[in-house]
Each structure stands twice: as C-alpha cells, then as structure tokens.
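Usage

Read records sequentially. Each one opens with the input sequence:
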Amino acid sequence: MEHAVDFELVHKNAASKVKLPKSNKKEMTVWNEGEVNKFLKIGKEDPGYIVFYLALTTGMRQGEIIGLRWKDIDLDKGLINIKQTLSHDGKTFISGAKTKSSLRTINLSESTVRTLKVRKLIVSKEKLSLGPIYEDFDLVACTQHGTPYNPANVRRTFKKLIKLADVSDIRFHDLRHTHATLLLSKGINVKVISERLGHSNIKVTLDTYSHVLPTMQEEVARKLDEIIK
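and closes with the structure output:
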C-alpha cells in the first residue's frame, strides 16, 4: 500500500530551505550641483584634482581614469577613448576595459578640454624637471614622478577633500552616479547616458537611476502643457 504524501508539509520544508539571494546593490548617494561646485573649488589645489574632475564630468570609473593615457585623448575633437584601466590594487595596467561595452568614446565639454590642457602642461613641466628619472607611462593622472596613483590613496584624498569642502560624505564611485543623475535631471536622453557610462544595455541604466525618473515624468507633464494649449 502506498503512503499518502503530505504535499503541504513537503512544500513548507522545501520553502524553509530556500534562501533568497542577497541584494548586491549598494545604497547610492549623490551630490547636487551646489555640492559638485563646492567640492571642485576646494579640490582644485590638490595634485590629484584631475581624477575627481574627470569622474564628475565624464562618469568614468576610477580604474579608467587612473589608467587613462594622453594618447587615448583627442583634445582637438574633445574625445576620450577608454582603452586601458588600472587594476584595483594599482599594480597592473589592463588593456581594454571592464566589459566590451566599457570600451567606448566619451565626448568632452569645453571646460573639460581646457582643464585637460592645463593638466598636460603641468605633466610636461614635471617631466622636464625630473629628466631621466621621470617614469613615463603617458598617464593623465599620475604622481610628480609619472607613476600611477594608488587607488587607496585616491580614496583617502577624496575623503579629506570632502571634509574640507563640507559636502555630503559619498563614495568615490558615487561621483559616477552624480554625473549620471545630474545629466538625467537636465533631460539628457537615457540611451546617451547609458553609452557614456559604458553600460551593457539601457536597462542597467534605467534600473540604476530609477530614483530620478519620477521627477522626469513630472517634467514631461509640464512640457505637454506647453505644447497643448
């Protein structure tokens, strides 16, 4: 004789063993325009200023900025080509980028081009003054000796400047989020921002910045009132 199976009990036991996946999403905190300008004003005197400036004006990742070479920039056309990154430990240059979509071209604002030209002049002077002892990796963001910045030191400097500027305490990666959020708030097309950030597809961008979309919907409603009288 077959034993009757208590399906309800089996279901409960199975359910009790199932563990829901933990969310890997870290809480995002971003700066507003006022905080961005406040921070940049204070950070301008720091040797690593270009790192923070590029994070805010291009949305590049930390490894992409620290691994950026002058030969990957076209200052005349105002373009950056992401072709090399620096590893998290700051010891290895990695050819290519995080993903295939991360290999991208980013358009630069006129102020960013001007800032990069000033930076290039500083690097040229440092190279000239040190002569043969200068280690030339063709880096945009580097120490006075030409060597790459240590990522941990960059983060320490970032925290120091945050305190000096008296702005919200955020992570370095939140500078990338700040860049995207401010562009979205200005009505820039989501697909354009997605390509700029090097996301694999637009869904990633929409999921990441869904908190900005409600205010954009409000703006759409206002624009409709301007169109339809």
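Summary fields computed downstream for this record:
- The chain is about 50% helix and 5% strand.
- The chain has a mean pLDDT of 87.
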